[in-house]
Amino acid sequence: MAELLMRGLLILMLWGLAVYEARAQSCSTAPEAQNLQACSQLAAAPSGADASLRWQRIELQGAGPQTRVLALGVPDVQALELWQAQGGEPQRRWRLQALDAQTARPLPGPRLALPLSLAPGRNTLWLGYRVHGDGRLDPQLLSPGAERQAQQRRDVLNGLIFGVMVTLAAVVATARWVGGPSAYLAYVALVLAQLLMLLHTEGYAFAWLWPELAGWNQRAPLVLGLLSLAAHAAFAMQFLQMRQHMPRLWRAHALLLALLLPALGAVLLPDAVRLGVLMGLLYAPLALGAAVQAWRLGLPGAPLYTLGAGALLLVSVLFFSLGVLGLNPLPSVHFLDYPKIGALLEAAFFSAAFINRVRAEQRRQAEQRLRRLAEAEELLALEQQRQAALALAQRQGLRLAGASHDISQPLASLRFAIEALKRSAAPGAITQHLDHTLAYAQTLLSDLIQQTRAELPSGPDRIALGPWLREQLAQHEAAAAARGLRLRLAPCRAELQASQLMLARVLHNLLGNALRYTARGRVLVGVRRRPGALELQVWDSGPGLAPAQLERLQQPFERGSSAADGGHGLGLFIVKSLCEQCGWTLRIHSRLGRGSGFCVRIPQAPITVDTVSA
11 lies in a domain? Predict the structure, then answer.
């Protein structure tokens, strides 16, 4: 983040050096470039001029016959008149109207400029104009060479600004797999809207894109401004995940977007500019509120998003509006440069916020992958412990049975001795009691041997596959229904001997992969008879796999190309590991565009089995 901020500050410094233009403070000391602000004052319209315009009277002192360019610094006007007096009555030199095409201008170029001839001595100019938003002009008097150089500097600088913004958008687009496609599309739309707005404010749009559509050119600022506002609102809703984290602000932004549609349809109204200003004023507190709330919630990228939104509102909106009204807070920067500065800062901070989120998401996914791998290893360890404990119990039972068998032998000898004693003499009470006790002890030992033999497991779990598979598939029915897939189980009456825990883990991983990567169709589960084995099969109608992918996807952290919903690339690896642990065989059948089949062969002697048609 610090590196990105340093780059942003460096760009800002280069921009400040490039846009700075030294301007003269008086009308007598700058023969190549003169700022006429100190030489002009508000005045009444000359006789015969349009009195509804805003008029400035400019007094100049010419040292000799001179050809100059009156640079007005704006791409267009709604109305303009220039009158000049050289020792006599004022005469109108130029007149431009809102519907005049680009070709009607006396000098070609993105920004409006008028040629002017100055006679020796005193020259008086009357400049009347009306611009968008009732703004103020800041005219300059330049030599033709100085005016060309100034335009060349602007062209180079604007090209740099546009190139940086496009590059930032491209950098963000390369990470579109994180954060959701909607946020990236909204960011691209925002950059495009900002670029179109800058093309218009710099005059390139009227000069290159629609030079004959003067009427549209007058309405373009409002339309492009509303589109930029809509793109900014849509980007904020997606990037900050407002619907999840800020439902009230999400509804407010959605309402604002709904209001923008009729606002765009009202661009032909006389007071449409005021409507656009009103929409901007409504959005400003929403944007700031969303930024503050995101910062408070600790959302990834929220600080950088706040800086980008703040730069846009402060520089592009506030400073630009003050400049239009003649209250430029930074006189060394032309007021038309503020939208470029704000748009560049916004794009830089927003792209940095995206990269910050990408890194945070990558760290989160890496942690999840490690947890999944640890869970798989823990599961294998637990199964190994269970098998070891079972083997230990078997050995202990066998030892107990052996000991009981050894003890029963001398007991039997004692019984034979007692029988002989009975035949040789009359039995007494002690002999009878001894006989009963020995009989009881022998019965207990015999029962213990039988019980141990009955409790000894003869092998792995015995599983009735039909009911067991139905129970396992029921856990995936909701996920299948949510994706519009049919989850089917082929009838099966087979039984097999295997570890339920290991078999369930294998089946759940295969079903999870099949449902994740199948866009439409079905997933079929069933069992087939194989020589000396049963084969559990999972078939899907997904995109299929190329032969080169099969080996790769059985490695850890390898995902298919369509893994857009959070898979971690461990499913097949876990299945392969469990199969190797249990002595099973995994086979994969797949055809591109036709689907895939995953078959797990479990060696044993089946009782009965129904086949599955793939």
Answer: no
CATH number at residue 77: 2.60.120.260
Residue 63 has pLDDT above 90, yes or no: no
| Domain region containing 174 | 145-362
Residues 490 and 596 in one domain: yes
- Whether residue 3 lies inside any domain: the answer is no
CATH number where 564 lies: 3.30.565.10
Range in 121-130, 567-576, 591-600 with the lowest mean pLDDT: 567-576
**DSSP letter string over 323-347?**
HHTT--SSTTS-GGGHHHHHHHHHH
Give the single-character DSSP code of 153.
Answer: H
Last residue of a domain, one of 108, 126, 142: 142
Output b/e per residue, 145-165; b: 16+ Cβ within 10 A: ebbeebbeebeebbeebbebb
Q: What is the mean pLDDT of the chain?
A: 78
Using 50, 70 and 90 to split pLDDT, how confident is the model at 419? low
Domain check: are 209 and 348 in the same one? yes
| Sign for the pseudo-dihedral over CA of 559, 562, 568, 573 | negative
DSSP E strands in 541-584: the ranges are none
Of residues 307, 301, 383, the one with CA closest to residue 344? 307
Under a CB-based contact definition with an 8 Å cutoff, are residues 194 and 224 in contact? no
Q: Which of 361, 369, 371 is nearest to 177 (CA)?
A: 361
Same domain assignment for residues 37 and 62 = yes
Query: Rounded distance, CA 4 to CA 6, Å?
Result: 5
Question: Are 35 and 133 in a shared domain?
Answer: yes
Write down the residue that tokens 């020589």 correspond to: 531
534 lies in the same domain as 385: no
Residues 473 and 551 in one domain: yes
- Which pLDDT belongs to residue 565? 46
Q: Which residues contact 550 (CB under 8 A, 6 or more apart)?
A: 588, 590
At residue 130, the 3 state secondary structure works out as: strand
Residue with the bigger pLDDT between 126 and 135: it is 126
Q: What are phi and psi of 340, to 5 degrees?
A: -70, -45
Domain boundary among 362, 394, 420: 362
Q: Name the residue with higher pLDDT: 31 or 590.
A: 590
- Based on the fold, state whether residues 191 and 296 are members of the same structural domain: yes
Q: Are strands 33-35 and 140-142 parallel, antiparallel or unpaired?
A: antiparallel
Classify residue 386: in a domain, yes or no. Answer: yes
Sign of CA dihedral 69, 74, 75, 79: negative
Residue 24 in domain: no
Pick from 430, 574, 475, 597: nearest CA to 525: 597
**CATH number of the domain that residue 220 is part of:** 1.20.1070
DSSP code of 178? S
Using CA atoms of 372, 373, 376, 377 in order, give the dihedral in degrees to the nearest 10. Answer: -140
Q: What is the mean pLDDT of residues 329-353?
A: 81
Residue 459 region, left (φ>0) first, then alpha (ψ -120 to 50), else beta?
A: left
Segment (H or E) for 402? helix 338-424
**Segment 232-260, tens digit of pLDDT:** 899 899 888 899 999 999 999 999 999 88
